[in-house]
């Protein structure tokens, strides 16, 4: 059993990271901690994709020394997905942080329960 975990260390690590991020997202009331939890979940997904795209003994998909056989290189699609995901997650994080600053300026708190309570009082 332990050997199986050691063979798939990247996958096990990505599952653990995803769990940590999900726990932070669900259990913390602070908006900054929720954003950090979401970023940890993103990182876990990227690690999983990169681990699945890697094949032992194969090189990067750059033709060198005239080797054009497909079985000499890894699949470049997971790497491209990871790079695209990183760009998107940085943009989403920037947007979330900007919205968090706006909420803090309006409600002077980063506690979700307090902000929701104040919003409901404003509606009444």
UniProtKB/TrEMBL annotation:
The keyword Transmembrane helix applies. GO terms for cellular component: plasma membrane. The keyword Ribosomal protein does not apply. Pfam families: Oxidored_q2 (PF00420). Coiled coil: none annotated. Keywords: Cell membrane, Membrane, Transmembrane, Transmembrane helix. The chain crosses the membrane at residues 12-28, 35-55, 80-104. Its main location: membrane. It is found in: Cell membrane. It comes from the Bacteria. It is a multi-pass membrane protein. InterPro entries: CPA3_antiporter_subunitC, NUOK/Mnh_C1-like. Belongs to the CPA3 antiporters (TC 2.A.63) subunit C family. PANTHER family: ANTIPORTER SUBUNIT MNHC2-RELATED. This is Multisubunit sodium/proton antiporter, MrpC subunit (TC 2.A.63.1). It comes from Lactonifactor longoviformis DSM 17459. The lineage of its organism: Bacteria, Bacillati, Bacillota, Clostridia, Eubacteriales.
